[in-house]
Design a protein that fits this description.
Blueprint (H helix, E strand, L loop, with lengths): L1 E2 L14 H7 L13 E3 L16 E4 L5 E4 L20 H17 L3 H7 L3 E7 L3 E7 L4 E5 L8 E6 H8 L5 H7 L3 E3 L2 H7 L7 H16 L1
Parallel strand pairs: 5-8
Antiparallel strand pairs: 1-4, 2-3, 3-4, 5-6, 6-7, 8-9
Helix pairs in contact: 2-3, 2-4, 2-7
Amino acid sequence: MVGFEPGADLGSEARVSSCQFKRFAIVPEEWPPGDDALTPTSNSSVSRSPSNAPRRWMRSTAEGRPVVHEPQARLREPPYLRAMSYFKDAEDAYRYLGGVFRAADEHPEVGQALRASGITLRLEYTNPSATLTVRMVEPHIEVIEGETDIQPDVRMSMAADTANKYWRGEYNVAVGLAKGQVKAKGPVTTILKMVPLTKPLFPMYKEMCAEKDAALVA
């Protein structure tokens, strides 16, 4: 932040009219919070600057001292946290969210523990709409994509992006249930007891998604 002393000659850039204020109010991400009189400095013309270029803004304080705000550095979000869904369609969701259960079946510890539970789990995802039925039984974990007549022991519904965050180790299912972001029917306590068993799958899931993540960033 750079300040100017009272009486300094700032030229026409320091004059903030109501029409200027209204014009630039459509760019909220560039405005310092709490300011009520702002105008871009001369080196930040909206029409000439690239859409992703940071802008410097000038405000008039209550004492009449104009102050230039330097933009804060913008951190790049991981691709799976962007507004658009991480999965482009149901097939994409099946590839990764179903794939992690197939990988679990081959894991020497996780696979055996999940199969020993004998649970049939139905997962209903939104955005995109997709359904997985996972039969965790011996001799192999069975992953069924789409609708099926098999009756599950536990039914869970959530956004596909929520499941994506969970398998990255970045989402707490118990908190999600409490907030209503995850809905469940059946012996949910049984599933919660199995959550710690899935932690070895987190790095495997990230490795599965590595190529997709790189493509989204590029």
